[in-house]
């Protein structure tokens, strides 16, 4: 059984803790965060250790790290802690949930996470420190860069490329052979059909309120 330190102690860590406690491959022993954030999170019965004290309590060879941070500042915070942990000599575990389906022969990037229901098709590539949330689809020959966040239900079509530090929202779709630039924000439900530039934002139009009441709509149009 692998001894695990969670890098993070907030909501993402709380979700990962639930999955990991049901996975016989792992034993969660602590969480680590930047100094001063030990009390900011709240994960059940897992002590938070400031990064400055981590090596004195758990030597790099004793534990593995699972990245358990969110996507704050376009994943820059996540990337920063990832690199600092590596510099201290810690190994970053690539966590694939047992209910994920990974068919690619390409290794999942260091420190990346593939959650239940996600599908990674043949020849797809996932970079380091990337989160692939539940029920996302990474189609054949696509490439996802480092420090990316792929939210639940997102679809990356065949041969598409997702740049580093990009956030792809819930149910967003990137069509075949399209490249999404680094540091993009692609909102929930957005459809990307053309290449995008770095550091750009792409949002789907929000659903507008109709002039009909719900009762009138059902009466005249059905559901």
UniProtKB/TrEMBL annotation:
One Gene Ontology molecular-function label: acyltransferase activity
Binding site for substrate: 70
Record keywords: Acyltransferase, Repeat, Transferase
Residues engaged in binding acetyl-CoA: 188
InterPro entries per the UniProt record, alphabetical: AcTrfase_PglD-like, Hexapep, Hexapep_transf_CS, Trans_hexapeptide_repeat, Trimer_LpxA-like_sf
PANTHER family on file: ACETYLTRANSFERASE, UDP-N-ACETYLBACILLOSAMINE N-ACETYLTRANSFERASE
Protein family: Belongs to the transferase hexapeptide repeat family.
Name the record gives this protein: Sugar O-acyltransferase, sialic acid O-acetyltransferase NeuD family
Taxon lineage: Bacteria, Pseudomonadati, Pseudomonadota, Gammaproteobacteria, Chromatiales
């Amino acid at each position: 059984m692998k001894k695990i330190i969670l890098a993070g102690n907030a909501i993402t860590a709380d979700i990962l803790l639930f999955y990991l406690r049901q996975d016989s491959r792992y034993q969660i022993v602590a969480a680590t965060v930047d100094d001063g954030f030990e009390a900011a999170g709240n994960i059940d019965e897992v002590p938070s250790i400031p990064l400055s004290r981590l090596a004195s309590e758990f030597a790099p060879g004793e534990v593995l790290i699972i990245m358990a941070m969110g996507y704050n500042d376009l994943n820059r915070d996540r990337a920063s802690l990832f690199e600092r942990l590596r510099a201290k000599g810690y190994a970053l575990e690539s966590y694939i949930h047992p209910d994920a389906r990974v068919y690619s022969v390409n290794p999942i990037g260091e420190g990346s996470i593939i959650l239940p229901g996600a599908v990674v098709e043949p020849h797809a590539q996932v970079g380091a420190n990337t989160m692939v949330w539940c029920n996302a689809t990474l189609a054949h020959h696509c490439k996802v860069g480092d420090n990316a966040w792929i939210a639940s239900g997102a679809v990356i079509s065949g041969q598409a490329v997702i740049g580093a530090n990009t956030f792809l929202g819930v149910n967003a779709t990137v069509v075949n052979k399209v490249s999404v630039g680094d540091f993009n924000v692609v909102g929930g439900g957005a459809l990307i059909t053309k290449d995008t530039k770095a550091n750009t934002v792409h949002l789907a139009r929000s659903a507008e309120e109709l002039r009909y009441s719900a009762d009138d709509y059902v009466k005249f149009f059905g559901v």
